[in-house]
């Protein structure tokens, strides 16, 4: 067993030695470590084996050296022989090298020079190649600088884009290209700031010049409208020549076109037609839009532009406080608004999406509401119809101008109907002053006509036809006063003025006809009627003037049908049309005439009262003077002369006035007898009073006004007559016997009236003669009076119960 282990150990040592001999020394360590890992004392045996192997190798080396030693000695001997030859050869080589160096020194210098030149040439070629890459970059950058200096910012942005994407990447390794690349974002921001600054300047500029743009646009719209009106006038088939009329110093025709001697406005219409682009430089907007689009920030620009324009719209829509004072204030206001929306319309069509139709419609709707509110407010301050008419014309031109740019303007035409009402009100106020002035200047006497020319002139102004007056020789008088043709002319002037407002409102002839008739009705029923009523009530208007007013209103009433024909001729709308409004002038003049008639009755009665106040009866006189009182004769003469003036009045009016005067006179005389302050009346005073009543009856029977039948006028004094007859005849027995019977002679005598007068006479009898009780006749009369008084009292008490 031990032998086997020894044999294995020897074999293992042999293997390890072979491995050490055949492997690299770096790998010996693991091999040696395996020796120590084996059995104890194994390394000693290995060392012994190793020593044996070394001795074996030494023997082999010694054998080999012995074998080759003679050859080595021979080689050394030969080498020593060659040494001398080698030294000789070395000397020859050294000498040859020296001579060669000396001979090639110049060539070497030239070769080095050539090499240096070749290196320089190569460097230059490389430099040229690199410069050829860099020069386009520098040229583009220089071009960029020039574009910035010349404010060609959009082109500069395109150049920047080329630099960044094409040129700079080719030479990005150079420092100057890196600096350029770092500068480009800063330049872009500068361009944005500069373009935005230009846009702000543009916005400020158009805010200042929008009125000029609007003025030009409105002038072109007005010229276009005038041209269309002229064409429509020439193409119309109607041959009725409307008269030319004058209104406030300007000459007009029926279609409202002004006829001015100065044709300068027409010359201006021949000027070159200018557009918003001709008046405003829009390049800052386009440039800024392109710049922001290239920079990818278009939405920011659009939002900023729209926001600023909305702010400007609000500023434009703010009117001046005194805008309503002059037409120029309205014109400037409209010009600015039109200029604003003309610019927006141009931006809408010239750019893609900077503003949209929805945005312009939104701004327009906001502006339209504000415009309507402003016009409502400021037009209400206008009290001059000429200014209101000018405002209407401006609104029409304003609406037509914006309608031509596609903006809806129907609400503006609706507003014009409100302005029309304001215009009518100002017209009525103005015409009220005109009517008052006409009435103040009127002499209220018939118009004298000396020649046929004067007659034709009056008839041309007022439709008057009277066959009897036409047959009369000159000079002659027309029944109406000079205010009648003036009023008729002024009514026609108002119709013309109303027609002026109706033009260009895009309304039918029927609607215009209705407007004219309503305006005329307002003038007749409100203004003229009020002026007539005020005139009639004025204290300085006497009976003669009132008579003339009645005559005037009669002729004006008759002329109403000619006014209707006048309106029909203007509008060409048949009066038989279902919805045609009728003129209410008939009722106006009838009311005025009735008021004048009532005022005649009132003033006539007042005049009678004034005469009655002059009465100075001596109520205690013993007997009458034998003639009528002076105040009464004056009153009758006044009435007689007054009723002569009534010859031109309608018969019924004159008869009513005469009957009213007689009744009032009779009532006043009766009140004078029954006055409570009058305590005593003598028989002489009754007789004197009877003489006055007889004069009144004579006046009534003289037919001061024709047309009364029989004794109709005298019946006004029947109460007085029966009362005085009762006292004059002293027929109390008949009165008391027949009282209450229809056939009574004193049917109109009231017991209370007779009793009051009888008591005044009874007191007088007692006072005048204190010795009357001693005379039998006086005593009998006194008893009779007392008896009659008792019976009258019983009658009065019976009536009251």
UniProtKB/TrEMBL annotation:
Q: Which GO terms describe its biological process?
A: Golgi to plasma membrane transport; intracellular protein transport; vesicle tethering involved in exocytosis
Quote the cellular component terms of the Gene Ontology held in the record: exocyst; plasma membrane
Segments forming domain Exocyst complex component EXOC6/Sec15 N-terminal: 49-218
Pfam families noted in UniProt: EXOC6_Sec15_N, Sec15_C
Q: Which residues form the Exocyst complex subunit EXOC6/Sec15 C-terminal domain?
A: 412-760
The record's keywords, sorted A to Z, are: Exocytosis, Transport
Q: Does the keyword Nuclease apply?
A: no
Under Gene3D superfamilies, the record lists: Dsl1p vesicle tethering complex, Tip20p subunit, domain D, Exocyst complex subunit Sec15 C-terminal domain, N-terminal subdomain
Superkingdom of the organism of origin: Eukaryota
Q: What is the similarity comment for this entry?
A: Belongs to the SEC15 family.
What function does this protein fulfil?
Component of the exocyst complex involved in the docking of exocytic vesicles with fusion sites on the plasma membrane.
- What this protein is called in its record is Exocyst complex component
């Amino acid at each position: 067993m031990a032998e086997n282990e020894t044999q294995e150990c020897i074999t293992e040592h042999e293997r390890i030695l072979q491995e050490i001999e055949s492997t690299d020394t770096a790998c010996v360590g693991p091999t040696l470590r395996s020796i120590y890992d084996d059995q104890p004392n194994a390394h000693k045996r290995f060392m012994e084996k190793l020593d044996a192997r070394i001795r074996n190798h030494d023997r082999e080396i010694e054998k080999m050296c012995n074998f080759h030693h003679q050859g080595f000695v021979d080689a050394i001997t030969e080498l020593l022989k060659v040494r001398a030859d080698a030294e000789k050869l070395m000397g020859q080589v050294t000498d040859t090298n020296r001579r060669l160096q000396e001979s090639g020194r110049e060539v070497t210098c030239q070769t080095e020079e050539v090499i240096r030149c070749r290196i320089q040439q190569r460097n230059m070629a490389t430099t040229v190649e690199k410069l050829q890459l860099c020069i386009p970059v520098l040229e583009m950058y220089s071009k960029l600088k020039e574009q910035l200096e010349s404010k060609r910012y959009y082109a500069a942005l395109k150049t920047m884009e080329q630099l960044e994407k094409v040129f700079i990447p080719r030479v990005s390794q150079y420092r100057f290209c890196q600096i350029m690349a770092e500068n480009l974002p800063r330049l872009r921001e500068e361009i944005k700031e500069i373009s935005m600054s230009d846009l702000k300047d543009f916005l400020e500029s158009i805010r200042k010049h929008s009125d000029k743009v609007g003025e030009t646009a409105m002038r072109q719209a007005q010229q276009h409208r005038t041209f269309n009106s002229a064409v429509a006038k020439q193409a119309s088939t109607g041959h009725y020549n409307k008269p030319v009329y004058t209104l406030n110093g300007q000459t007009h025709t029926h279609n409202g076109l002004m006829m001015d001697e100065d044709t300068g406005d027409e010359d201006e219409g021949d000027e070159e037609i200018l557009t918003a682009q001709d008046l405003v430089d829009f390049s800052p907007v386009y440039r800024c839009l392109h710049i922001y689009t290239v920079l990818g920030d278009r939405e920011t620009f659009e939002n900023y532009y729209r926001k600023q324009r909305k702010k400007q719209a609000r500023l434009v829509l703010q009117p001046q406080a005194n805008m309503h004072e002059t037409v120029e204030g309205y014109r400037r206001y409209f010009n600015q608004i039109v200029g604003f929306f003309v610019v927006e319309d141009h931006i809408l069509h010239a750019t893609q999406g900077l503003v949209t139709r929805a945005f312009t419609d939104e701004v327009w709707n906001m502006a339209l509401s504000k415009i309507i509110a402003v016009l409502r407010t400021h037009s209400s301050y206008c009290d001059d119809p000429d200014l209101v008419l000018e405002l209407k014309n401006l609104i029409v031109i304003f609406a037509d101008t914006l309608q031509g740019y596609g903006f809806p303007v129907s609400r503006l035409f609706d507003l014009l109907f409100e302005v029309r009402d304001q215009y009518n009100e100002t017209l009525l106020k103005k015409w009220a002053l005109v009517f008052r002035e006409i009435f103040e200047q009127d002499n209220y006497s018939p118009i004298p006509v000396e020649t046929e020319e004067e007659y034709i002139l009056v008839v041309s102004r007022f439709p008057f036809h009277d066959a009897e007056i036409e047959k009369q020789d000159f000079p002659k008088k027309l029944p109406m006063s000079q205010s009648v043709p003036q009023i008729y002319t002024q009514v026609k002037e108002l119709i013309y003025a109303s027609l002026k407002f109706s033009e260009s409102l895009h309304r039918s002839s029927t609607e215009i006809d209705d407007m004219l008739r309503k305006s005329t009705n307002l003038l007749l029923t409100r203004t003229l009627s009020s002026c007539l009523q005020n005139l009639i009530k004025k204290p300085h208007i006497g009976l003669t003037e009132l008579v003339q007013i009645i005559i005037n209103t009669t002729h004006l009433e008759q002329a109403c049908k000619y006014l209707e024909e006048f309106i029909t001729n203007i509008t060409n709308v048949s009066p038989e049309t279902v919805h045609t409004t009728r003129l209410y002038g008939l009722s106006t003049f009838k009311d005025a005439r009735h008021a004048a008639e009532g005022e005649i009755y009132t003033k006539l009665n007042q005049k009678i009262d004034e005469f009655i106040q002059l009465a100075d009866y001596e109520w205690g006189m013993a007997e009458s003077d034998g003639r009528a009182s002076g105040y009464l004769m004056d009153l009758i003469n006044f009435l007689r002369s007054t009723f002569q003036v009534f010859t031109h009045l309608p018969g019924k009016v004159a008869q009513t006035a005469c009957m009213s005067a007689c009744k009032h006179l009779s009532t006043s005389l009766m009140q004078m007898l029954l006055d409570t302050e009058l305590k005593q009346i003598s028989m002489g005073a009754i007789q004197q009073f009877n003489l006055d009543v007889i004069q009144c009856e004579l006046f009534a029977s003289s037919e001061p006004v024709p047309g009364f039948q029989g004794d109709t006028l005298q019946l006004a004094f029947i109460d007085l007559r029966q009362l005085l007859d009762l006292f004059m005849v002293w027929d109390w027995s008949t009165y008391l016997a027949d009282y209450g019977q229809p056939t009574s002679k004193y049917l109109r005598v009231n017991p209370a009236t007779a009793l009051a007068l009888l008591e005044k006479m009874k007191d007088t009898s007692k006072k005048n003669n204190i010795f009357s009780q001693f005379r039998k006749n006086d005593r009998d009369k006194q008893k009779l009076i007392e008896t009659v008084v008792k019976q009258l009292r019983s009658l009065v008490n019976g009536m009251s119960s």
